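1st attempt posting a full record on here, be nice pls
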Amino acid sequence: MNNQYDIAIIGTGAGGGTLLHALAPTGKRILVLERGGYVPREKDNWSTKAVNLDGKYNTKEVWRDRDGAALHPHTNYYVGGNTKFYGAALFRLRREDFGEIKHHGGVSPAWPIGYEDLEPYYTQAERLYQVHGERGVDPTDPPAGSPYPHPPVSHEPRIQQLSDDLARLGLRPFHVPLGVMLDEKNPVTSRCIRCDTCDGHPCLVSAKADAQVVCVDPALAYPNVTLVTGAYVSRLETNPSGRAVTRLIVERNGGSEAYSADIVVVSAGAINSAALLLRSASDKHPRGLANGSDVVGRFYMGHVNSVLMALSKCPNPTLFQKTLALNDFYFGSPEWEYPMGHISFVGKLDAQTLRAGAPAIAPNWTLDLMAKHSLDFWLTSEDLPDPDNRVTLDRDGQIVLAYQPNNEEAHRRLIAKLESVMKQQTKCRIHGHDCHEGLFARNLFLGQRIPLAGVAHQNGTVRFGHDPRSSALDPHCKAYELDNLYVVDASFFPSSAAVNPALTIMANALRVGEHLKERLR
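the predicted structure (as tokens):
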């Protein structure tokens, strides 16, 4: 077996899978190493009990927090990465997010590239991931070179009512840009059936635009592409000078295997990519591979996220709830000059999901009743890069994730804005203004907010920049200290912004793919 390749890609999610799509047609020999296998296609894909209560598809791996306590990460290792379970909300970062922004809690640094550098690749990624949306309604929408490739996903009646109420208050609600294969004009032939188990679930009918369905499986039609599953990359080894990765050491089927490639791309997720580089320390790289700047693993971000339930006496029969968003407070308000963040929805909660981490039950309500009468909001505020929020390894090589939330006042004010808005809803024809029962903080796991284990928006641990003294990667996402090592997951983010990172990871992977194609010629 010839284990020498032109390119090796570690990971098949939003970064690695999308890069594979870009490079597969080049004819170069491409090795793709994926830690997991394919998500089994089974009825449990759509079971909220199996997915949310039992955590059937979560990794059983145990990390540690800064105090050494066990941390059970809510993440998944499969072909397609975490896109298999994402809610498919595909936002561009705002144009301003690429520059320096002053927050109440500190400063969000500028990126080494501007929005215009990434814009063409955002357009390509939206086509590739079949994004449904509408330009120009979101007040923070950055300029775009073309319309969305598909019309927005329509609101169901209860969400449309809320959208109308928000507009009546002078706000500018808009349709969430979604990567789903839905054709509402032709429901008989539509691949997507608009179910209530999309967000957080794998799609049983392969109608969610995830990296496996859209990128990896089509790429495997090329004879030059090899996918190896069940392949945990334990270490990267270099040549004697330390300037090039020469061997990828893989644990697979109880044994050890070695592979080589002219170019090596790491895309294992911001936490695992940092851990891999740290595990690969050597005499030439004593602090970890590509870590002369001592930033690898540092500046971990994951957003300040909350799920809030708004209960009303009227039921919410919505199936596909995640169609509405609000960015009116993204950059602040007349009363507060600092950014607050983004408001949208999670998939419709049910009693099983609430059992996985319910709030204090409202008086005279059961979990089932709460689920049937709730609007289930997702709130995101930007957290700021802090060198002490970091990924390290303990003496046994286990991942340690140390994180102290910051910029929390912005999030508190965002919650207050939502509470204020919900109190001004149109008078209910049945219950009047008493219909709205208030907001109940709820977490998909524990506590008031998404906790440390909720790492879906992980980013920032191998940042790119212009200065090798403060960045591990150059603006092309190549390691400064190595000639053939790239990183294309969300590790490269120098700031987190306040929208889902997935589309930016995808667009950047296409941008890096263009650079690599030039290099490979």
